[in-house]
Specification:
The protein is α/β, with parallel strands linked by helices. Helix content is 51%, strand content 12%. The protein starts with a helix and ends with a helix.
Length: 368
C-alpha cells in the first residue's frame, strides 16, 4: 500500500491486516533544521530551505506516510499570538516562542466584537499582534496571500513525493481563539462571571467563519482541515465547563465540515480523556484526533476506536531522552492496540527540536 492508501485505510476505520498498513506521522516543524545542519532562522526566513531540509531529513530517518504541510514561518503567523523569532528577538538556533499577554483588559470588548463582526475584529487583532504591527488591512491580506503561496509550494512537494499532508488548511474554534486573545486565566474568569457575551459571539459567528473556511478549502479541492482546539481540554477546564461552553461550538464545526465532505483533524493538546465520549455524538468518521501523550491513548481508543480515528502518541521526552529500543517497545504497544483500525502511529504533538535521530528512525521503522 502506498501512503495515501494507508491513510484512506485508517479513515475507513476497518481492521488492519498487518502493521505495514498503519500510516506513520511524526509531526515535524522545527527538527528538520538541526538534523540537516541548518539554523532555525534560515528555515523560518526561507520556506524553500525548510522543504529542502524536509527532504534531506527523510533521507536520514526514512520516509513517513503523513507530514505537516505548514512551514515554521506560517505556523507562527496563524497561531495569532505575539512571538519571538529566531534570528530577530532570539538566537538563530533557538526555538520560536509565543508570548501570551491579554490583548484586551475589559470584558466589554466582547460587545465590540458583536458590533464589529468576528471577521473584522479578528482581522484587527491579527494586524496588531504582528511584530511590527500591520498598519493596514491590505498588509494582512498580502500576508495571507503569501501564506497561500507557500502552502501551495509545500503541498506540491508533498504530493509529488507520494506523501500525504495531514491537512490542506487550518482553522480554530472561536472559543479557543478568544481564550488566547484574552489570555487563559482572564478568559476562564469571564466564563464564570458572565459567559453570555462569549456564547453570543460563538453562536453568531462560528457558522460564518466555518462557511468561509469550507469555501476556500473546497475551491482548492481540499478534503481536510486542521482544527487547533488547544484550550478546550481538561487541562484548562472542567468537563462541565467544556460541555456548556466549548463543546457546542466545536460540535457545530465538526457537523458543518462533515456535511461539506471535509474531515476535521483536531489537534488535541492536553488531557482530553474526560471529553473523548463527546466525539461519539458527531457523525462516525467525521473527526481525526491527534493526542499528545497527556491523554491516556489506550483508554481513549477503547471509547472511540472504530468510530473516530486517532493518532499518537510517542511523547517528546521519549523521543529526546529515550533509547531506540524504548521507542520500539512503546510503538509495539501502540501497534497492538491499533490493529482493529482507525489508528495512525505518530508523535505526541510535535517532534522536539532536540530529538534523538535514532529514535525517529525507530518510530518510522516500527511499521515497516
Amino acid at each position: 500500500m502506498n501512503s495515501m492508501e494507508k491513510f484512506q485505510k485508517m479513515l475507513s476505520l476497518t481492521p488492519y491486516n498487518d502493521r505495514t498498513e498503519i500510516p506513520v506521522f511524526p509531526m515535524m516543524i522545527v527538527p528538520y533544521a538541526p538534523i540537516c545542519g541548518m539554523t532555525q532562522a534560515e528555515t523560518i526566513e526561507h520556506p524553500e530551505r525548510w522543504v529542502e531540509a524536509m527532504e534531506k531529513t527523510f533521507e536520514i530517518i526514512g520516509r513517513p506516510d503523513v507530514v505537516m504541510p505548514m512551514c515554521p514561518r506560517d505556523t507562527i503567523f496563524v497561531m495569532g499570538l505575539p512571538a519571538k523569532i529566531p534570528g530577530k528577538e532570539l538566537g538563530e538556533n533557538e526555538l520560536y516562542q509565543f508570548v501570551e499577554t491579554p490583548f484586551f483588559d475589559d470584558p466589554a470588548e466582547y460587545e465590540k466584537i458583536m458590533q464589529m463582526g468576528w471577521q473584522n475584529w479578528n482581522g484587527m487583532y491579527m494586524c496588531q499582534v504582528q511584530n511590527p504591527p500591520f498598519t493596514s488591512p491590505d498588509q494582512l491580506m498580502a500576508r495571507y496571500g503569501l501564506l497561500g503561496e507557500t502552502l501551495g509550494m509545500t503541498l506540491g512537494y508533498i504530493y509529488s513525493h507520494g506523501l500525504v499532508p495531514i491537512f490542506e488548511t487550518a482553522t480554530a474554534p472561536i472559543f479557543d481563539t478568544l481564550s488566547m486573545a484574552r489570555s487563559m486565566a482572564e478568559f476562564i474568569y469571564d466564563l464564570y462571571d458572565d459567559p453570555g457575551p462569549i456564547m453570543d459571539i460563538i453562536n453568531k459567528f462560528q457558522p460564518e467563519a466555518d462557511k468561509q473556511t469550507i469555501g476556500m478549502l473546497k475551491a482548492n479541492n481540499g478534503s481536510r482541515a486542521g482544527c487547533f482546539a488547544m484550550r478546550s481540554s481538561a487541562t484548562f477546564m472542567s468537563p462541565d465547563m467544556f460541555e456548556e461552553y466549548a463543546w457546542p461550538g466545536l460540535k457545530g464545526m465538526i457537523e458543518r465540515f462533515h456535511e461539506a465532505g471535509i474531515l476535521l483533524v483536531i489537534h488535541a493538546d492536553g488531557n482530553w480523556l474526560p471529553m473523548i465520549e463527546y466525539f461519539t455524538q458527531v457523525p462516525k468518521g467525521s473527526v481525526h484526533l491527534e493526542l499528545d501523550g497527556a491523554t491516556d491513548i489506550e483508554k481513549a481508543y477503547d471509547i472511540i476506536g472504530g468510530y473516530q480515528s486517532i493518532r499518537g502518541d510517542v511523547n517528546a521526552n521519549m523521543l529526546c531522552y529515550g533509547t531506540p529500543d524504548e521507542v520500539s517497545t512503546y510503538c509495539e504497544k501502540l501497534i497492538k492496540m491499533g490493529m482493529k483500525g482507525g489508528f495512525m502511529l505518530g508523535s505526541g504533538c510535535e517532534v522536539p527540536m532536540n530529538v534523538n535521530v535514532e529514535n525517529l528512525k525507530a518510530l518510522i521503522a516500527s511499521v515497516r
